[in-house]
Structures are given as C-alpha cells and as structure tokens.
Amino acid sequence: MKAWYLVYCKSKNEERAKLNLMMQGVESYFPMFMEDKLIKGKKVTKRVPLFPNYLFVYFDPAQFSVSRLHSTRGVSRIVGCGEVIQPIDSNIIKVIKSRELESKELVVTDISQGSKVRVVDGPFIELDGVYEQSCGKERCQILLTIMGKTQNVTLPLSSIQAI
Q1: Which residue among 5, 42, 73, 146 sits deepest, i.e. has the most Cβ atoms within 10 Å of its Cβ?
Q2: Beta bridge partners of 81
Q3: Which DSSP letter does residue 20 get?
Q4: Largest CA distance in the chain
C-alpha cells in the first residue's frame, strides 16, 4: 500500500534526491518556507528548507524496492525504527503543505535601513529612532538620540513600529 515515508538525504542533496526519485516515478515532497535573511547588509527573502536534509517520499514498498530507494543519488537512508520503516500519516503531510502555502502569503514588514521607527514597548517607549539593521530573526538595531547623544540600541522587532 502506498504511503508517505521520511528519507534522510546527504547534506545539501535534497533537490538532487527529489529529481532522481522523480525520474524513477516516485513522488516526493520537500517542504520550504520563506525566511528573511540579511545578506551584505540587505534584507533578502529566501526559500529555505523546513526540515533540512529530509524529504518525504510517497511509494509502496511492495512495488518499489527499498534498496533501490537507498541507492538513489542524494538519498542516505529511510528513517524508521531499526529495520522497520514507519509510514507517516497523510494528514500530517496535508497540514505541512497547507501551512507552507500560508507562509508564502505572509506580508513582510517594510522596515529597511534608514527608516524612521518608534519604540512601542520597553524602557525606550515613545522614543523615535532610525532603523539600522536586523540582528537575527527577532531583534534589530536602531539609532536613538538619548541625552543629546546618538546611541546604537538592540531591541526586539516586536517593540518597534515604522512611522
């Protein structure tokens, strides 16, 4: 019976494994999501793997040999308990696919370097500043004028708002 299984791929070979499986007639799914990254001082939105090195594969072990799957370029092994491979509930795959579609529809905030911002939470509440850069996913650096001197302050992204 056809079911979804989890395959562990060689490092950075998920797309290669997906292509080679497709050429063998096996359906596969490699979930991705959109992530904001800072590259050379610029905010760039890139598609990155939700589960790096893992690929979901839909096949019937009785019709498609597991050893054939293991010998596919890019594939390292099938994830399971010992020698027994465990199928994954198809509802889990449906939920992951629907959430992947939702993440593509998310709107990215329009705060870029040099934008004016206002602090809306924390010890610097009500102060206006200039957005400098992102520090990871949840923090940023802004320039605030405090007591007549410009200071570089790191704050959570949730505590600033574009003005």
Answers
A1: 5
A2: 84
A3: H
A4: 75
For residue 22 the two structure tokens come to 């497709």
| Side-chain half-sphere exposure of 72, counting CA atoms within 13 A | 31
Query: Exposed/middle/buried for 55, CB within 10 Å: 0-12, 13-18, 19+?
Result: buried
CA 122 to chain centre: 29
Nearest one of 106, 104, 137, 108 to 31, comparing CA atoms: 104
Identify the helix (H) or strand (E) that includes residue 68: helix 66-70
The strand pair at 27-29 and 42-49 is best described as unpaired
Q: pTM higher than 0.85 for the full model?
A: no
pLDDT truncated to tens, each residue of the chain (163 aa)? 899 999 999 999 999 999 999 999 999 999 988 777 767 666 677 888 989 999 999 999 999 999 999 999 999 999 988 788 899 999 999 988 888 877 654 434 567 888 899 998 888 888 999 999 888 777 889 999 887 888 899 998 888 888 8
* 4: β partners: 58, 88
